[in-house]
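Here we describe the complex-level prediction in full. Unlike the single-chain runs in Section 2.1, the two entities below were treated as one system.
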Amino acid sequence: MTGRLESALRARIDGGGKCLVPYVTGGYPGWADAVRACAANGADAIEIGIPFSDPVMDGPIIQQASQIALEAGATPVSILHEVRSLDVGIPLAVMCYYNTVFHAGHERFANDLISAGVSAAIIPDLPLEEAGEWCAAADAAGIETVMLAAPTAPDDRLPRVADRARGFVYSVGLLGVTGERAELALTATTLAARVKKITKKPVLIGVGVSNAAQAVEASRVADGVIMGASVVHRMIDGGSEAVGLFVAEVRAALDGATW
Amino acid sequence: MSILQTPGSDGRFGDFGGRFVPETLVPACQELEAAFTDAWNDPAFRAELDHLLREYAGRPSMVTECHNLSEQLGIRLFLKREDLNHTGSHKINNVLGQVLLAKRMGKKRIVAETGAGQHGVASATAAALLGLECKVYMGEVDTARQELNVFRMRLLGAEVEAVTSGSRTLKDAVNEAMRDWVASVETTHYCLGSVMGPHPYPFMVRQFHRVIGSEAFDQMNDVIGTSPDYVVACVGGGSNAMGIFSGFVDTPAQLIGVEPAGGAAVHRGQPGVVHGMKSYLMQDEYGQVSEAHSISAGLDYPGVGPEHSYLASIGRAQYPTVTDDEVIAAFQLMSRAEGIIPALECAHAMAWISREAKNMQGKTVLMNLSGRGDKDVGQMMSILKDLM
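The structure predicted for the assembly as a whole is:
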């Protein structure tokens, strides 16, 4: 059965378009407005980060946003509570580190996501070999678990990652943590091409996709992009209005390009 | 069958351990696991490591009987003198092993985290000796309280970066080292300094430190003809404790891992996942990792190696705590009674022995003196003002 997230992305792709999934750090002051601004300006789905004390996959910008959110008292419970009332009309995915899930309990967390109206989960420190218990609970509850494919993965690993992925395959854009980069890494499109070859699921590039031009460049190979640090950076500097303008700019670039 | 486990490819010690890392690092961990297994079974690698441990690090380290403290406390106290190794702690055992392995794997650079600076100094030392680049991440709080070790690392040619995120202590240094490794994995080996992290680190680091326990087992047999009644070591991540426990885990000796009251992962934590492993972890009701607070930078860590969690879960080892005040007293006690200035980390073990001696009258106690206290003298000067 195709889940809500994959269906939404599939609709965009089948219409000849490219997918845009912005990331917003949950619990950061004004984050809910930033999510609405993403939805209103052409996002196909939105990734909501649940801040964690030790975010090893994140660079300085998302670390900073996470820390501010935690200091403001954000918890998984308070964020999911707010998510419930967002009503943005597009699928939502949470991005969280595994201890948040493990501590809550797999089934409870999956059910909490469902109650909050969340469609999918991305857990960057839960690789294939450790994902069994979570995936069983998520599958049972109807949560799509997005798996990450990394540039370091040998050829025999990628199909197993793609097979287990629901929603889309998150093709990691570079060797490194989240953050803005001056140029799209060569590894971004190289890996996405490898993944595209072995799966029919949507393949989105995330980590190191920093502006509209890079989003277009990445989407020449991939089905779209996830944009994290560049969105969060605008949320920190200019609030939801800046986020909306940026998402609209990337959307326009993706829609204006010829594929 | 030994209680010491050889984990399978899932990296588990009972329910603990595993490999909870970003996908990017999974192939690197698998490659490291294969390379370690290959090297550990290669007599040439073992001979080269043994040679370095003997000729460079100064092994075997001796066992010293503490006659004065024994008389004072009513026990028979022995110290395994890891403080006498080159660079002043047990950390050199693991680092020589890992850096040799990194070279064998064709890596050009190592990164390391450090708390008190002992592992950082050992890493910088081994990198200098074996010709690798070295970068050490150290929390800003720790660079301030262990200034001397920062200079020492730089003198040895390493780059030291003060980590300003989170609690700015050991746990954040681990985060930053992992972030570096995610970006540099093709050329770089992460030289993790304790029996923690993703598989194969907890197993590999314990194997590199087994030499402590193997030597001590023979040495105690030579002196007292049997194993001691108690084997005591301090526990942060737990590498020196796993090293010495490994020699006695299959004897009747009671194994005691002493945690700081402000960083008592086993004593007060719950199972959790951070830094690539499932283990006991100090955390809040939502699974946010708590900040540890200890006078000793080396033990200022909210987690613990997974094999300790396993030994605790089956009741084979106990993990009591001591307070900073008890540690300060023990630091002075050992200095004055035996003429040995212990590292603040090891003063935790001494503090427990001193407190519990009344319940161990006539018993034989072996303590792992895992490091010397020279690095802590600056910090203690500001605490023991009456000595100035």
